[in-house]
């Protein structure tokens, strides 16, 4: 249970975000069946947020700090680290395992 991280492309292996850092990322989120439910790439703008401060799902708060700048990784996030039993009505069914391809662009 939790978040599994598989590196797709290594980053610089020196700059890692820590709790409270603001980061810039691209991501594509999908369900296990391949249905894409969200994508910063489709919107054409990186997603910017503070990491490790409870603004995001637990899988991201725990997974992103393990990435270095420039890294692209695949996160497999179990429901307890994602949106849980409730999901997001009309978008993510309850108890869904989530798949994210995340690219850490910068720590701001």
TrEMBL record:
Keywords: Isomerase, Rotamase
A GO CC annotation given for this chain: cytoplasm
Residue ranges annotated for the PPIase FKBP-type domain, each copy included: 20-108
Catalytic activity: [protein]-peptidylproline (omega=180) = [protein]-peptidylproline (omega=0)
Enzyme Commission number, as recorded: 5.2.1.8
Gene Ontology MF terms: peptidyl-prolyl cis-trans isomerase activity
Family, per entry: Belongs to the FKBP-type PPIase family. FKBP1 subfamily.
Name of protein: peptidylprolyl isomerase
Gene this chain is encoded by: FPR1
């Amino acid at each position: 249970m939790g978040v599994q991280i598989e590196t797709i492309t290594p980053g610089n292996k020196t700059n890692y975000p820590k709790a409270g850092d603001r980061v810039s990322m691209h991501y594509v989120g999908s369900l296990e069946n391949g249905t894409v439910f969200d994508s910063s790439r489709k919107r054409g703008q990186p997603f910017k947020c503070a990491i490790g401060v409870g603004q995001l799902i637990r899988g991201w708060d725990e997974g992103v700090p393990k990435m270095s700048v420039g890294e692209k990784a695949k996160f497999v996030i179990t429901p307890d680290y994602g949106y849980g039993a409730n999901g997001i009505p009309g978008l993510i069914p309850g108890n869904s395992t989530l798949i994210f391809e995340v690219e850490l662009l910068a720590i701001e």
